[in-house]
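User:
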Amino acid sequence: MTDYVLETRGLTKEFKGFTAVKDLDLTVRRGSIHALIGPNGAGKTTVFNLLTKFLTPTAGQILYHGDDITHVPPATIARRGVVRSFQISAVFPHLTVLENVRVALQRKTPTTFQFWRSERILDGLNERARDLLEQVGLLVHEAVPAAELSYGRKRALEIATTLALDPDVLLLDEPMAGMGHEDVGRTADLIRRVAAGRTVLMVEHNLSVVADLSDRITVLQRGEILAEGSYAEVSANPEVREAYMGTGHA
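Assistant: Predicted structure:
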């Protein structure tokens, strides 16, 4: 079995003459936290959209556990274990915290989206839902409507609902976006915990978070790989310092 859980080979995406991603050869090692960084417009979100099949590549391949999934539908990709969270928190605001996770758990059962099922049957999911809430530090808030959570705790709830799908690979799109300092620290600790036993690929602009969490970093510029390596390696790269961090800054 390959050491790489996700790979792209020559991955390219063109939009009416504009090349957003060009000949991308990305390798994400099994069990790692891998960060994808770069200036605005570097192609990071386009890469995520290609990996999760929201976009169809113009050319190239996407491999998952060594299998070519380039033309596999997005729902199939999610069922096989590649699950994504988005920049904007996506929870049901008027359901409780517990109910949000329970809805996500239904995706893995024969009761998927059968909201008319009896409360007794759905209560069978409560133990697993509470276990997930404990993992993300939200068990004490299980009866609270999601709309009443702080922004950072909504993102934690979203991670819990993502974990309910039992992902093998977790793609996090700017998990710290819009957060205050306290929530950033809490969410970084959460990502470190949930990464145990799975692979995480994340787009993140907060470089202190990237430095703290990432095993490997890929820097994109204009849809191509500018540099790869540890944070120490990429932050010392003169091209990276100029293109992403600004000349003279680590």
